[in-house]
UniProtKB/TrEMBL annotation, chain B:
Protein name, as recorded: Amidohydrolase family protein
Keywords assigned: Pyrimidine biosynthesis
Top-level taxonomic group: Bacteria
Domain called Amidohydrolase-related: residue spans: 136-406
InterPro entries: Amidohydro-rel, DHOase, DHOase/Allantoinase_Hydrolase, Metal-dep_hydrolase_composite, Metal_Hydrolase
Source organism per UniProt: Sphingomonas mollis
Family matches, as CDD domains: DHOase_IIa (cd01317)
A Pfam entry, by short name: Amidohydro_1
């Protein structure tokens, strides 16, 4: 057993890239305890009391922001949200200046979402506190990948050897990239499925098997993970129409039968019901979609806790 | 006034020879071994070159900024200034002013915009701009989408004897992208276009050049497919030349890892097989010109998320040492390198410069091809946006003369 900070030596969590398999597993283990705690009435914990957590969201988000806010509050942190719409970013302030402003306010941990790939790393290089990536462009969304991995591990017993199909708009998806990195690191068999117009080039170099035929991809699947397709990409730019997308890539009850009978259905939300996923599937017995949301809070609590241990002087981490 | 450059190793078109070079009234009057030039005039000033290399001053075919100090340090005496300025070089008055701002230290040869405001729609006043000092016309760092407009640009420029300098990226394929499609771009989550965006543009422009008889210089060619098209076109007798910058010879797209915005270039860095094809294109003569593409950007334009950062690198100060790496690695000989850096770009621009021959202006570069140093962006004359920061290199300009006057 490796003790303390040696098991997770990273200052920031900017992505799954760069994490060792045992480090991912460590974060999942840490999250497990919060899953149980969150189910009780006494959800409070004060380990982050007195610390300031700033959620700086340069791109609109409801669920992720809420999830980080709840996670921080359950650990006793003073949580402050900064929305781009209310911020000086709209007045032309550069990202670096914003970062330095946040830094000067002595945040103890920054949670950042931004529409440009690489923006979170840029900020992480400029501030003195740990930075947690809540999604940067189409690059990474590490806590989503961790909550998905936790959901799979709890429901399927293990991640290694599971056949996971990720289907939808992979090209623009940070969720897909982070999930591919974490699931392949944890030895799952990952299949990706999309029309070629929505498939990232050279995706096979990330150790996944690409499919354009969803039916073929679903054969023998243990987990089916659907991605959201943005409305503006369904009107002829990447696919001809929503109904044609549903025809080829919609997860319907009939199609789901091609997967294993007990296959898990997942979606990072928000869903386009009736397009990439049918309500019967989304609300059906195989769906883990609401559980994902619950896992999200637990995973984010674990990440906030672990990343601040060094500064809090937790024994073995200082 | 006469200047005698003695004890030099002269970089001549057909080899490097020890000897003396004589300059009178700003022009080269004699080149040869010490014995053939025995009658040094009594009033001659002597410059002892100490056995170092004396070469034609570099002619840099395509810079985005006038940066006199960087050029002097880099051994560059003439630059072709891209029309992508503010305001755009599409008006005779602006062209004339651009031609003058470098004096007296730097020859600036403005490239006039081929279309008004570089918008790719209406022809600009090329003849007026030519009279105002434009040596060529260019489409800027963009793409003329309409083939009819491009055909007319080429035909009209051909009538005036002007070469058309093009940028080869199909505008549709590269719209909204900042990288070459491949593993690196996918891992970083950067919007990317397939490398054939270049060949697609080259193919169209070569056919139009062939059809119109116009002379075309493709400023940067960076992919194997496009080089093959150019090789074949040259064999057919199409009047095409092409160039490249050192970045595409020494770096591939994995230099973008960690979102290094200094590696955000236009065209973007390519994969390793394309980089090797470019080295082969240098060796076999398909590529005619090496240019700096000098485009200094300060932190306000580069310290941004990758996709939001400006494209381009500061290249003037590193053009010589990065090009000398090609000699060290055996891709070209030293005399051939100066064809790429001086003689060929001068020919593209129609200048009687670029070689150490009698009658040419005395644009001279004395350099040491051995001295080791480390590239340090912080020390650059203007901005230090170089993807080669920290790289140990060899070779540096020692002294530079423009028209016989030392800079």
């Amino acid at each position: 057993m490796i003790a303390g900070g040696a098991v997770f030596p990273h200052r920031h969590l900017t992505g799954i890239e760069g994490l060792q398999p045992h480090e991912i597993a460590f974060l999942l283990d840490e999250a497990e305890r919060w899953v149980e705690a969150n189910r009780t009435h006494a959800k409070g914990d004060a380990r982050l009391a007195g610390l300031t957590q700033i959620n700086a969201f340069f791109e609109n988000s409801t669920r992720t922001l809420l999830s980080f806010e709840i996670a921080g509050k359950r650990l006793g942190a003073d949580v402050v949200n900064m929305h781009a719409a209310q911020s000086s970013v709209k007045k032309g302030e550069t990202l670096i200046d914003t970062a330095q402003t946040l830094n000067a306010m002595r945040a103890d941990i920054l949670v950042i979402r931004h529409m440009s790939s690489g923006a979170v790393k840029l900020i992480a290089d400029k501030v003195d506190c740990p930075v947690l990536n809540a999604g940067d462009g189409r690059h990474e969304h590490p806590t989503q990948a961790l909550l998905d991995a936790l959901t799979i591990r709890r429901r399927r017993g293990s991640i290694a050897g599971q056949r996971v199909v990720i289907c939808g708009d992979l090209l623009h998806s940070r969720v897909a990239r982070s999930n591919i990195l974490s699931l392949t690191a944890l030895a799952a068999e990952v299949r990706v499925c999309a029309p070629t117009t929505l498939m990232p080039p050279a995706i096979d170099r990330m150790f996944v098997t690409p499919f354009t035929d969803f039916d073929a991809a679903l054969e023998g699947a243990d987990v089916v993970m659907m991605l959201r397709l943005q409305n503006e990409r369904m009107d002829g730019g990447y696919v001809p129409s929503p109904r044609e997308f549903r025809l080829r890539y919609g997860l319907t009850p009939e199609r789901l039968k091609r997967a294993k009978p007990d296959a898990l259905v997942m979606h990072p939300g928000p869903m386009n019901r009736g397009i990439e996923i049918d309500s019967l599937v989304a609300d059906g017995p195989q769906s883990a979609i609401t559980e994902q949301v619950a896992m999200g809070v637990a995973v984010r609590m674990a990440c906030l806790d672990v990343l601040t241990r060094r500064d809090r002087g937790v024994e073995g981490w200082a | 006034m006469t200047i005698a450059f003695t004890n030099a190793r002269l970089v001549l078109p057909d080899g490097v020879v020890p000897g003396t070079l004589l300059v009178r009234d700003g022009a080269i009057v004699a080149v040869g071994s010490a014995e053939t030039i025995s009658d040094l005039p009594a009033d001659a000033t002597t410059v002892d070159c100490g056995g170092k290399l004396l070469a034609p001053g570099i002619v840099d075919c395509g810079v985005f900024r006038v940066d006199r100090e960087a050029c002097r340090r880099g051994g560059i005496v003439r630059v072709a200034l891209m029309p992508d300025q503010s305001p755009v070089l599409d008006d005779p008055g602006i062209v004339q002013r651009a031609a003058l701002v470098g004096k007296p230290d730097l020859w600036i040869h403005p490239l006039a915009a081929a279309t008004r405001a570089l918008a790719g729609k209406e022809l600009a006043e090329m003849a007026f701009c030519q009279a105002a000092g434009a040596r060529a016309v260019a489409i800027g760092r963009r793409w003329i989408a309409d083939a009819q407009v491009m055909a007319r640009v080429l035909s009209y420029a051909h009538d005036l004897g002007l070469v058309v300098i093009t940028h080869a990226e199909d505008g549709g394929l590269v719209a909204g992208t900042v990288a070459t499609a491949g593993e690196t771009a996918t891992r970083l989550g950067l919007a990317a276009a397939p490398a054939i965006a270049e060949a697609l543009a080259v193919a169209r422009d070569l056919l139009l050049a062939e059809e119109t008889g116009a002379r075309v210089h493709i400023r940067q060619v960076t992919t194997a497919t496009a080089l093959d098209l150019i090789r074949a076109a040259k064999r057919r007798g199409v009047a095409v030349t092409c160039g490249i910058t050192p970045a595409h010879l020494h770096l591939s797209d994995n230099a973008m890892s960690d979102f290094r915005t200094f590696a955000h270039l236009s065209p973007p860095l390519r994969d390793e097989s394309d980089r090797r094809a470019c080295l082969a294109g240098i060796a076999d003569g398909t590529i005619d010109v090496i240019a700096s593409g000098h485009d200094p950007h300060g932190p306000e334009e580069k310290r941004l998320p990758f996709a939001d950062a400006a494209a381009g690198m500061a290249g003037a100060e590193t053009l010589l040492p990065l090009s000398l790496m090609l000699v060290r690695d055996g891709h070209v000989t030293l005399d051939r390198l100066f064809a790429l850096l001086a003689a060929n770009p001068a020919r593209v621009l129609g200048l009687d410069s670029g070689t150490l021959t009698r009658g040419s202006p005395a644009d001279l570069l004395l350099f040491d091809d051995r001295v080791p140093w480390q590239i340090d962006g912080e020390s650059f004359a203007s901005a230090g946006n170089t993807p080669f920061d920290g790289l140990p290199v060899q070779g540096r300009a020692l002294r530079v003369w423009k028209g016989g006057r030392e800079l």
